[in-house]
Design goal:
The chain is an alpha+beta fold. It has one helix at residues 8-37; strands at 46-47, 53-54, 89-97, 102-107, 113-117, 130-138, 141-149. The protein is 20% helix and 28% strand. A hairpin with a 4-residue loop joins strand 3 (89-97) and strand 4.
Length: 150
């Protein structure tokens, strides 16, 4: 006859598991009976005028009336105002490749370089030309647009 596959270790582990389950059930029943005999905690929770939870109802004299029309949901519309044209900046064309159709303008005030594409030119330019331009945000930074010679 074949010997049973259940070893001594497996039997002990099963006993421990059953014992833990039994203890857990006893603790659960003890908590239930204690809660019935001796209820604790806040039965009703109120929110006071500061937004804190309390067990006492808030004072009705501290209640504020809020006009529903004054509540704005979302972003308020911008006021109508005249469109100001952005100030044209001045600079010098530091590099321009006509075959590839792009170049760079060096700002005369802060000495920053801005990319310029042939599509942003109002008239043809070459290197060392003094120009006026406006800036627009491009995918890789600020680009010079509406570029014309001075």
């Amino acid at each position: 006859m074949a010997k049973s596959q259940v070893t001594y270790n497996k039997i002990e582990k099963e006993k421990k598991r059953l014992k833990k389950r039994e203890e857990k059930q006893k603790k659960k029943e003890a908590r239930k009976t204690e809660a019935k005999e001796n209820p604790k905690g806040i039965q009703f929770a109120y929110v006071d005028h500061n937004g804190n939870l309390t067990d006492t109802p808030p004072d009705p004299q501290l209640k504020e009336q809020i006009d529903l029309e004054s509540i704005e949901v979302g972003i308020p519309k911008k006021e109508e105002r005249e469109e100001e044209e952005p100030a044209a900046k001045e600079g010098k064309v530091s590099f321009f490749d006509t075959s590839k159709g792009f170049g760079f303008i060096l700002d005369s005030i802060n000495q920053e370089k801005y990319f310029v594409h042939v599509s942003g030119l109002l008239e043809p330019v070459s290197e060392n030309d003094k120009v006026t331009y406006e800036l627009e945000r491009g995918p890789k930074g600020m680009n010079a647009v509406r570029v014309k010679k001075i």
